[in-house]
Amino acid sequence: QQQVKQSPQSLIVQKGGISIINCAYENTAFDYFPWYQQFPGKGPALLIAIRPDVSEKKEGRFTISFNKSAKQFSLHIMDSQPGDSATYFCAASQRSGGYQKVTFGTGTKLQVIP
Amino acid sequence: DVKVTQSSRYLVKRTGEKVFLECVQDMDHENMFWYRQDPGLGLRLIYFSYDVKMKEKGDIPEGYSVSREKKERFSLILESASTNQTSMYLCASCDRGSDTQYFGPGTRLTVL
Q: What does the mean pLDDT of chain B come to?
C-alpha cells in the first residue's frame, strides 16, 4: 500500500535548469512533509521540510510547494547543478506516541548534466 | 554533528545463515529505526525502537527481529537469511519529539 506516490522515477536536467519532483499523498493525518537527499554510498539526509499550514517554503535554490486541498507537494530545484545529482525522496509523517512515523516515496534519481 | 554508524558497508551471506546488522548512534536519541531500501520501492520500515528493550513492528517485519540492549545500539537480526532479503539496509535515529531522522551510510547485504 503506497501512501506517498512520487514521480518521476528518474529525471535528467541540463545545468542551470529547473528540476521538479512531484508527490501525492492520501492520509490527511500527515502533518509533516520532508524531502531527503541521498548521494551514492551515503544515507539519506534531510534537505528541506514543510508543514501543511504553509503553501511554500524556500531554502536557497530549493523550494517546496504544498497544495493541501489537492494533497500534493513538490520539490523545485532552481539553477540545477551537477552537484545536485542524487536520489530524492519525498516523505510524509504523522505523530504516533513519541515519534514521527514516516512514509517515504519511491525516490527520484536526478542527473544534472553540464 | 549527529553520527550514525553501521557495522558493515557490504556483507555477503549464504541462505539460511543468521545475520546481524549493527547500528550505533552518538547523540543519545531515544528513537532508532531499521529500513530497507529497494529500487522502485523507496524506504520501507522494518522495525523501530523508542527506548531500550522496547520495539515495535514496522511495515515489513516478517523474517526480521531486532535487539536494543543499550540506548546507542540497535541491531537487526535475520534469523535465517533468504535471497529475497538481499537489499540495502539503513539505520536511522531521531530524538523524541523531533521530526528529523538521521541515517547511517547503509549496509548492502547480498544473500546467495
A: 94
Q: Give counts: helices (H), strands (E), chain A.
A: 0, 11
Q: Are A92 and A4 in contact (CB under 8 A)?
A: yes
The answer to whether the Cβ–Cβ distance between A106 and B92 falls below 8 Å is no
In the numeric block, which cell numbers belong to residue A68?
493541501
The pLDDT of residue B2 is 66
Q: Give the cell for residue A33.
A: 512533509
* Cis upstream peptide for A8 (omega within 30°): yes
pLDDT tens for each residue of B18-46 = 999 999 999 999 999 999 999 989 999 99
What is the reported pLDDT for A95?
81
Chain B residues 88-107 with a CB less than 8 Å from chain A:
90, 92, 94, 96-106
Angle A43-A24-B90 from CA coordinates, rounded to 5°: 15
The answer to whether B58 and B71 are in contact (CB under 8 A) is no
Is B34 part of the contact surface with chain A (CB cutoff 8 Å)?
Answer: no
Task: Among A100-109, B67-76, B91-100, name the most confident range.
Answer: B67-76
d(CA B105, CA B74): 15
